[in-house]
Amino acid sequence: MRLPALRICLAAMALTIATASRAEPTIAQRQACTPDVLRLCSSQIPNVAGITACLRREKLRLSPGCRAVFSAAGQPHSAGL
């Protein structure tokens, strides 16, 4: 079953985004991006770096809420992202 892997992956993605913005991930951030991950980047699950890269590539197609999460986080250049 992929559901547990999806939850772990989404939590890790939220932590990656939060680390980039130096803030704790919020439930709202996870909720904002989960539909976009499933719609645009499901082939990358459970690869957190792949999901993050996919969401960045698809920035113009992201929902407004998820786009705001990435805009707030900026564009980190750390390893693994």
Give the structure's gist in a few sentences:
This protein has 81 residues and is mainly α. It has 4 helices and no strands.
Strand content: under 5%
Number of domains: 1
- The gross shape turns out to be globular
* Biggest pleated sheet: none
DSSP summary: helix tally? 4
Q: Low-confidence segments, ≥5 residues, pLDDT <50?
A: 75-81
Radius of gyration: 11 Å
Helix content: 55-70%
Structure classification: mainly alpha
Secondary-structure element pattern, one letter each: HHHH
Name the average pLDDT: 75
Number of DSSP strand runs = 0
Report how far the terminal alpha carbons are from each other.
26 Å
Signal peptide: 1-23
Protein name: Cysteine rich repeat protein
Organism: Methylobacterium planeticum
Keywords: Signal
Architecture overview:
With 81 residues, the chain is mostly helical. The protein has one domain (3-73). The chain is built from four helices and no strands. It has helices spanning 3-21, 27-40, 48-57, 64-73. Helix 1 packs across helix 2 (27-40). The protein is globular, with a radius of gyration of 11 Å. It starts with a helix and ends in an 8-residue tail after the last helix. 26% of the residues are buried. Keywords: Signal. It comes from Methylobacterium planeticum. This is Cysteine rich repeat protein.
Produce the secondary structure layout.
Layout: H1 3-21, H2 27-40, H3 48-57, H4 64-73
Helix pairs in contact: 1-2, 1-3, 1-4, 2-4
Key features of this structure:
4 helices; Cysteine rich repeat protein; mainly alpha; signal; about 80 residues
